[in-house]
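Hi V.,

Quick status before I head out on leave. The structure for the redesign project is tokenized and pasted below; the design run finished overnight.
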């Protein structure tokens, strides 16, 4: 397949996947490779451009991740970001030193309006030569390599960006990939389109086509096992695999009794024997096992661990029945990777049971995570591209631990029933109001609060349901959605009238951060 490619060379920084995402937003296909990748391999891919990412090291230290001078002599435009910018200078004979003070956060840079990297930036800033960027560095470029000139600076940093136009080499000390850099997208667009000359005709169909082809080549005649949760991510992963290898794929769907109302049957209708896909489908009804394991447990992280561990046990038992497989598929997406602390620098915020922690005793050779580099909105695009029904593609994202993390305090079968019923009413009304495609994620959760109410002539002492609805682009940050009051009122009165055990309904206004999207 002849396609424009930009290669991102990873030096271990925390925003590396964002760089790739931004390039793809320019409709240019992009792949990430470790800095250890052989240069000949990269050259053979014939990339239109190369981007060197940030990283936690100092490039002048012994043993720091590095690259060779040849990388800059391939005749392919190279853009170095942060560590990548410093490394470019270091390798080409410039000087990088420790600054007296770390420069961190939003910073104003003064830039050269004539530089190709900053094309259109001044216009966007009302004709100014100043713009806000995101800085995060200890070291700075104190002397440029031959042929380079500085094209941006800050009060503390003489080289915030530099170029050697004749050689096609560009260095940016800040992080254009981060949204805090006001014109970052324009700068990356300028590199990818203006400087590298990419036409930008890559779309999700190429990702899908390329991934199916690559999976087919990799798997050959091998056997593949997939844990299907019924959520968007694992469903898209399963369909990709089913299109690649058909009946070589077996999907195990564990119904842990923490699914949304009727969801188990809906999943079975799509992926089971009566559905449109070619694969082997196994449904395990493990509700009782889960409820008994969760009895008396209130601490959220412990609940997550129990649900995750139990999932592994159930999955393991099924896998044993199936016997040795070659590959294990997971629907891991990028936010899972980052928030599990596997993405590099970031701390563990929550454990996600769908990343890592796989049963050692399941006999498999390798894990396949076809969606690992995608954000949620990209996964949806891939789903549509794959011809998965819209209803499923735009279905609410649903966490692996399910309603277990939408019930504050102990999980019981009765509380599950309350959340399922309340949530079904909420979803129905949101859809009726035509909001189901515009609101990012919405659901009902059960607070652990019981309070006094009155119903008919009777005093009640029942639970409060919390309604959550957020808008988000990438699920890393989110804001409460503005649901019309009338819709909320209808939902409230229906829940109180129709769901036994509830006498109050709240709407959660909290954004993320400081809240999380889930309610646990
Ligand atoms: P939070 O609550 O962390 O959620 O703001 C961000 C997004 O991730 C989903 N989420 C999970 N998804 N396994 C998953 O597959 C999990 O353990 C998990 N925890 C949160 C959440 O629904 C939201 O879309």
């Amino acid at each position: 397949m002849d396609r424009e490619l930009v290669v991102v060379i990873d030096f271990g920084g925390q925003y590396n996947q964002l760089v790739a995402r931004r390039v793809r937003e320019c409709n240019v296909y992009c792949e990430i490779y470790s800095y250890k990748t052989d240069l000949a391999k990269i050259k053979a891919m014939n990339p239109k451009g190369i981007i060197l990412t940030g990283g936690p090291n100092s490039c002048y230290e012994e043993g720091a991740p590095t690259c060779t001078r040849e990388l800059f002599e391939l005749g392919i435009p190279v853009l170095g970001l942060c560590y990548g910018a410093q490394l470019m200078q270091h390798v080409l004979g410039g000087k990088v030193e420790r600054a007296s003070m770390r420069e961190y956060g939003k910073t104003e840079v003064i830039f050269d309006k004539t530089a190709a990297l900053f094309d259109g930036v001044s216009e966007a800033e009302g004709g100014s030569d100043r713009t806000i960027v995101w800085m995060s560095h200890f070291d700075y470029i104190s002397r440029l390599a031959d042929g380079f000139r500085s094209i941006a600076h800050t009060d503390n940093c003489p080289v915030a960006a530099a170029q050697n136009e004749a050689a096609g080499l560009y260095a940016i000390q800040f992080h254009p990939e981060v949204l805090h850099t006001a014109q970052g997208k324009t700068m990356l667009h300028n590199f990818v389109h203006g400087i590298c000359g990419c036409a930008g005709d890559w779309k999700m169909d190429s990702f899908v086509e390329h991934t199916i082809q690559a999976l087919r080549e990799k798997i050959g005649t091998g056997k593949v096992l997939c844990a299907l949760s019924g959520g968007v991510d694992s469903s898209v992963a399963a369909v990709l695999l089913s299109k690649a290898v058909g009946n070589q794929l077996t999907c195990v769907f564990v119904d842990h009794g923490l699914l949304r109302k009727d969801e188990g049957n809906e999943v079975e209708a799509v992926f089971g024997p009566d559905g449109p896909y070619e694969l082997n489908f196994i449904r395990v009804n493990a509700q009782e096992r889960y409820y008994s394991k969760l009895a008396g447990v209130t601490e959220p992280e412990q609940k997550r661990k129990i649900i995750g561990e139990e999932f592994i046990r159930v999955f393991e038992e099924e896998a044993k029945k199936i016997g040795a497989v070659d590959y294990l598929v997971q629907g891991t997406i990028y936010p899972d990777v980052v928030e599990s602390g596997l993405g590099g620098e970031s701390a563990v915020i929550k454990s996600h049971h769908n990343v890592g922690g796989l049963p050692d005793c399941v006999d498999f050779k390798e894990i396949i995570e076809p969606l690992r580099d995608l954000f949620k909105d990209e996964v949806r695009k891939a789903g549509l591209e794959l011809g998965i029904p819209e209803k499923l593609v735009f279905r609410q994202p649903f966490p692996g631990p399910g309603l277990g993390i939408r019930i504050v305090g102990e999980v019981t079968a009765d509380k599950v029933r309350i959340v399922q019923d309340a949530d079904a009413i909420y979803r129905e009304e949101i859809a009726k109001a035509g909001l189901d495609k515009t609101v990012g994620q919405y659901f009902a959760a059960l607070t652990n609060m019981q309070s006094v109410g009155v119903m008919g002539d009777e005093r009640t002492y029942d639970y409060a349901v919390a309604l959550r609805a957020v808008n988000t682009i990438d699920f890393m940050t989110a804001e409460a959605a503005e649901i019309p009051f009338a819709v909320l009122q209808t939902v409230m009165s229906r829940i109180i009238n129709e769901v036994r055990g509830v006498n109050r309904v709240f709407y959660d206004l909290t954004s993320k951060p400081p809240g999380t999207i889930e309610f646990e």
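Above is the designed sequence. Residues 65 and 169 are 19 Å apart (CA to CA).

G. will cover questions while I'm gone.

Best,
W.
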